Amino acid sequence: MESHLAIQTMDALCCTYLPHPPGHSLMKVAFRVANSVLVVTLAVLLAPLHASDSQSQPTIDSALQASSQQHRPVLLDFHAVWCYSCYYMASHVLTGADWSAVERKAIVVDVDADSPEGQAWMEKLKVSFLPSYIVLDEHGSELGRISAEQPRQKFYPQINAILANGNTLDALKAKAQAGSLDAVVAVLDAYQARSEGQAGLAWFESLPSAVKKKVVDDPRVALGLEQLTLIQTEAGNNKSAIIASAQKVLAHDIGCQRPYVLDSLLEASDGLPEVQRKALLTPQRKPMDALLDTQVFVATPTCADQRSAVLTSADLDTALGDHVAETALLNRAIDLTKQRLGNNLASDRNLADNLRVYLARANRTAELDDYQHKLIAAYPQDYVYAYRYGRSLLEAGKPAEALPYLAQAYDKAFGENRLRVASFRVKALKELHRDDEAKKVAAEALSANGPWFPKQIAALKAQVAA
User: Fold this and answer.
1) In whole angstroms, what is the distance from residue 382 CA to residue 2 CA?
2) How far apart are CA 91 and CA 350, in angstroms?
3) Model confidence pLDDT, tens digit, residues 11-41
4) Strand 132-136's sheet: what is its strand order?
5) Which of 1, 17, 332, 386 is deepest in the core (most CB within 10 A)?
6) Spatial distance between the Cα atoms of 429 and 318, rounded to a whole number of angstroms
């Protein structure tokens, strides 16, 4: 299994850091990476996605200190500037009276997952993907977590239950040992959230025989064990085992988790003979169509992550050789997203970014080029879209056209983001034989960055020397 540092990317089509989305099920989503770009920003310099400008943001340590005095739990909201799922939560869920009530119950800390503090706590808490919402008690012990984007009707019952009745993992294990079915399910879910398949299965086997006999036939326990098995098999990269395990999970009614598990099946079966692979994947077409028709392509989607459902379904069409269906699906997604957005791209960044990805997946190049200009205009304070477009121009052999966009992105970026953008500015300048300017850009970025991110500093220096 890759570490989150190895596969982070701001140009990802999904916000998952690690192969196994906990609450989502346990397949290898792993980002559909376009380019492996580690995007690290300094939390003190980058405003959180949904924090009020008038509020000073506490650090996690200071929040825990306040928690011990106020006897309120701490809610950590892990997100990143490039995370489309985080934008969904910010604009659709973490709003209104429901969210205000949560903020009264807990000390909420916005955590930039790409900051040094965010990365340290993600490693400590074994956060596998974004967004993640983790509740800690005053001692820093975890009381519960919610992983990935969720619609309002699912998010608030979960977070309110954690805030009201949160138990540490050790407390849940004790209840499970005593025979509590709900505690067994909760512990299995906790191991899934941490992508710890082998450890979760070993814990279940350690339960008293009477407890295992009591709970093993419960559908929630059966599914949890199969999901942990999938995590374990993916960690071992045994494709035959992954295929068998993914099929078992997909046999359940797993709702919005289906695209992620299907991703595992698609990836693991990629090397099979065409006839054998089609026979394996054909039964997955009907349940995916049902998911799209009833929970994605509807006025009020049940699945918060519409993008993964669309892209995985398109990948399934590709694997089955049905390019007509693939094109029709992508066109349907594009048309519906345009309809929902109207003429205001700034009204819903999650949808706006979905449209960018659908256009790219459909190879509607001219339309995508025009649309990227609109995205840059809609989000002028954000480096991400200017960076993406400038880099695409550079990679297309147009360094002179790329430079203004890379310069715009550089002015908005911080930390490793700035180092990353600087490296492409340097590359563009050197291709134009403007070596003195390239050296100046690199020197400025290195001076502004300080001692952080030594690998990226070395990469930038190497780019200058190339």
Assistant:
1) 29
2) 8
3) 433 444 433 333 333 333 333 333 222 233 3
4) 107-112, 74-79, 132-136, 142-147
5) 17
6) 39
Half-sphere exposure of 425 (CA within 13 A, CB side): 27
The single-letter code of the amino acid at 446 is: L
Please name the helix (run of DSSP H) or strand (run of DSSP E) that holds residue 144, with its range, or none. Answer: strand 142-147
- The domain 1-166 is placed in CATH, from the list 3.40.50.1370, 3.30.360.10, 3.30.980.10, 3.40.30.10, at 3.40.30.10
The pLDDT of residue 313 is 98
pTM higher than 0.90: no
Burial of 92 (0-12, 13-18, 19+ CB in 10 A): middle
CB 301 within 8 A of CB 256: no
Q: From CA 6, how far away is CA 36, in angstroms rounded?
A: 8
For 380-466, give the CATH class.
mainly alpha
User: What distance in Å separates the CA atoms of residue 95 and residue 210, rounded to the nearest whole number?
Assistant: 45
* Angle, helices 399-412/383-395, rounded to nearest 10 degrees: 160
Tokens of 347: 């009204």
* Boundaries of every domain in the chain: 1-166, 173-236, 380-466
- Measured CA to CA in angstroms, residue 294 lies from 21, 116, 357 at distances of 22, 41, 22
403 CB-near residues (< 8 Å, 6+ apart): 390, 425, 428, 429, 432
What is the Cα–Cα distance from 254 to 226, expressed in whole angstroms? Answer: 12
First to last CA, the chain: 33
277-296 burial, b if ≥16 CB within 10 A, otherwise e?
A: beebbeebeeebeebbeebb
Q: What is the pLDDT of residue 42?
A: 29
The answer to whether the CB of 312 falls within 8 A of the CB of 259 is yes
Nearest 5°: phi and psi at 127? -80, 120
Tell whether the model's pLDDT for residue 44 goes beyond 90: no
For the record, the structure tokens of 254 come out as: 């797993």
CA–CA distances in Å: residue 161 to residues 101, 135, 143: 13, 11, 10
Whether the bond into 131 is cis, omega within 30 of 0 = yes
Letter for the amino acid at 133?
Y
Q: What are the C-alpha distances in Å from 2 to residues 142, 269, 296, 336?
A: 24, 20, 30, 35
